[in-house]
Design a protein that fits this description.
By secondary structure, this protein is α+β, with helices and mostly antiparallel strands. It has 2 domains: 21-204, no CATH class; 216-322, Sandwich (Immunoglobulin-like), CATH 2.60.40. Helix content is 39%, strand content 15%. It contains 8 helices and 9 strands. Strands 1, 3, 4, 7, 8 and 9 form a 6-stranded mixed β-sheet that branches. The chain has a 3-stranded antiparallel β-sheet with strand order 2-6-5. A hairpin with a 2-residue loop joins β5 (268-270) and β6. The longest helix is centred in the N-terminal third of the chain and has 36 residues, at 84-119.
Length: 325
């Protein structure tokens, strides 16, 4: 997908308009924000509880670094490590590392480009270009590692699902050239404003999400729900958190049906317990229910509970089945 609108035709028909990298749906919009949304969040200091493309970039960077370190360690395992089986694994890991680094850098480039588009301050665009060039370098390394594969790797009949990693470089270069052309309109680069400098810094740095260690243990999901009856839900917040940190808690819920949108309701506080109900008319459904909590802090931070664990192996919401299901 092109970062710059119009530099290359989008290979996808089911992505929102305008068809570019910044507007691509995260597929789970309750849990993740888009590239353009996060660029605006950073620029204007908006609190967004969802995981951002920069969170995703950091996960990919950390995973790629861990895989690369593990591969280096395996290479020092002796002559057996040069067996055909090892060489096949080595090539595949190198490809995966390169792809992880590519998408990590491209997502940072996309967010920085969104900041540039929304602020019209070229410093953000220059940083986007720098990250895009890093992404290209990573793609080249993945393509080189993939030279052991045939030139036409097929996955379906459409053109975008055929070919080799190296075939994509021409489109990447065309998109980079379009970004360079946009930036060439500035004969000089004025110093960025404080808001843009902050946005650039956060888009390029390691994200730090707010967490409360006891938040997951403060809610016990019900075993089941009765269709046609309200479902009461409550979350207990430690006393030391409420007064100095927390301002609002929302309940987000939806049928386990991807064709429906999430509902959002502010929870009412009673001491350290926040509670709300999923209405009876909403539980009258053949679908199971899924829900999570959205927490807002006095410093403007916001996050979701339960969210992901450190290993990204957990379910970021609670699910409840109908009684008798």
């Amino acid at each position: 997908m092109p970062i710059v609108i119009g530099s290359e035709p989008s290979p996808y028909s089911d992505t929102p308009e305008p068809k570019c990298f910044g507007t691509v749906s995260p597929l789970d919009p309750q849990t993740f924000s888009t590239v353009e949304e996060h660029g605006g969040d950073l620029l204007y200091g908006s609190a967004n509880p969802r995981y951002s493309p920069i969170d995703g970039s950091q996960w990919l960077e950390d995973s790629a670094a861990a895989a690369s370190d593990a591969l280096d360690a395996a290479r020092h395992g002796g002559a057996a490590q040069r067996s055909p089986a090892f060489l096949r694994m080595e090539a595949d890991v190198q490809i995966q590392v390169g792809l992880g680094q590519f998408f990590a850098a491209k997502m940072r480039a996309g967010v920085l480009y969104a900041v540039f588009q929304q602020s019209q301050e070229p410093q953000a665009g220059l940083e986007a270009l720098d990250r895009y060039l890093m992404a290209r370098e990573a793609w080249v390394k993945a393509a080189q590692a993939g030279a052991v594969y045939r030139n036409d790797i097929t996955y379906g009949s459409t053109p975008m699902r055929r070919g080799h990693w190296s075939d994509r470089l021409a489109a990447i270069d065309k998109d980079i050239a379009a970004l360079v052309a946009q930036l060439s309109a500035w004969s000089d680069v004025p110093e960025a404003t404080p808001d843009t400098r902050r946005a650039i810094r956060e888009a390029m740095g390691r994200p730090a999400r707010p967490t409360i260690a006891t938040i997951e243990s403060s809610h016990t999901p019900p075993a089941a729900f009765e269709p046609g009856a309200p479902l009461a839900l409550a979350i207990a917040i430690p006393q030391q958190v409420i007064l100095p940190i927390l301002t609002q808690v929302f309940l987000r819920y939806r049928h386990v049906n991807q064709g429906e949108r999430w509902q959002r309701e502010e929870m009412q506080a009673n001491g350290t317990v926040f509670s709300a109900e999923i209405p009876a008319e909403y539980t009258q459904s053949p679908y199971a229910l899924q829900y999570c909590f959205e927490l807002h802090a006095k410093d403007g931070a916001a996050w979701l509970a339960p969210g992901f664990n450190a290993a990204l192996s957990s379910q970021p919401y609670y699910a409840v089945m109908r009684k008798g299901a």
